[in-house]
UniProtKB/TrEMBL annotation:
It comes from the Bacteria. The lineage of its organism: Bacteria, Pseudomonadati, Pseudomonadota, Gammaproteobacteria, Enterobacterales. This is NAD(P)H-binding protein. Residues 6-238 form the Thioester reductase (TE) domain. It comes from Hafnia psychrotolerans. InterPro entries: FAR_NAD-bd, NAD(P)-bd_dom_sf. Pfam families: NAD_binding_4.
Amino acid sequence: MPNILITGASGFVGGAVVEHILRQPLVDNVQLLLLVRADDKAAGFSRIINNLKKFELSEQQLALITEDSILIGDLAEPENFINDTRLDNITQVINCAAIASFGNNPVLWKVNVDGTLIFAKRMARVKGLQRFVHVGTAMASMPDKGSVFYEDMPDNDHNEDLVQYTASKRAIEKLIRQECPLMPFVVARPSIIVGHTQFGCRPSSSIFWVFLMAIKLKKFTCTFDANIDVIPVDYCAMVLVNLCLNQDIQHDFYHISSGEEMCTPFHEIDTFVAKASNTKTIIDEYKQTSYQDFTGIRKQFKNILGPCNDKIILRAIKLYGGFAELDVKFDNQRLMDMGIPKPAPFRSYIDKCVTTTRGQSISELMMVDFK
Ligand SMILES: NC(=O)c1ccc[n+]([C@@H]2O[C@H](COP(=O)([O-])OP(=O)(O)OC[C@H]3O[C@@H](n4cnc5c(N)ncnc54)[C@H](OP(=O)(O)O)[C@@H]3O)[C@@H](O)[C@H]2O)c1
């Protein structure tokens, strides 16, 4: 019976991974251990259940998670949980936990690199470990502008990281490969995860607000035709579980992405947001605008976006605008070769993202990405 340790289950991706497993008909044959930050098991359990409720699981499905499924721990202090003997029985790990923020979190390196390495080294000593799936990020490859990034390409070390987050994600992959050479380690790098095909942004408004903000401003740093490699969180979760349990995988590195053909041009996002909100598209008014030019109009942000801190909005434009300008696609041939279906196109569920964010201001929606 697989005994899977999942980290980050109180978050967006880890929550979707648990959701995916709980919906499987053979779920009774799987044991789960969930690493979560909390003072005690009861508090950890309640954090996990509250997150899973966003995925509309039934009471019966939720009942499969109990306090015994909880491992209390913080990757900033891994020595406090790595001696738990339940880890010795783990057969697979899906490591979703990380500080996934573009902000300047002072413990970013401590959690994403130092703590994660200690945790990986501990799991490398588990005799029955069959797979350690580590969730990276496609942007860690620092792709060239306008390029397609293929899975067999080395990271572009000559390009500069736009944020420390991507540097930390690249560093930990390299360190685990160096220091745990015998561990059955697989890296899955998702592109940009936005919403859920069934529940829209209910599980998380992460990044969707960037599109809404750009549409409201009728300006952003990218062209109107720029391609955005977006995947839904439930697709990402399905792939992670497959990479975790599939006995026959050929590679130790995968992109989870929409691939060359399925990227969504920004103008299409505008069209489908307009349709779902019953508003006009901005096609005739959109203006590609540099960060520098945005600084000059910062005082208008409140009028356009509602109550907000113009400094934070400018910072968001700088951080997310830098990625949007890249106009990059991530090839997903390895998943296609495994017979894994393509992700649902963003346009097919944008309406659900619009509905589930209705009535919330940009300031409210963006909070999730500035923890
Ligand atoms: N969202 C995307 O677009 C995207 C794209 C590519 C890759 N990824 C990767 O996907 C993974 C999950 O991201 P996400 O979007 O799900 O982010 P998220 O919603 O912020 O979830 C992050 C998870 O990591 C946990 N975590 C953070 N610091 C921790 C610590 N010190 N010790 C233990 N757990 C800790 C969080 O726990 P708390 O609830 O206690 O904070 C939460 O459960 C990350 O590795 C990220 O790099 C995400």
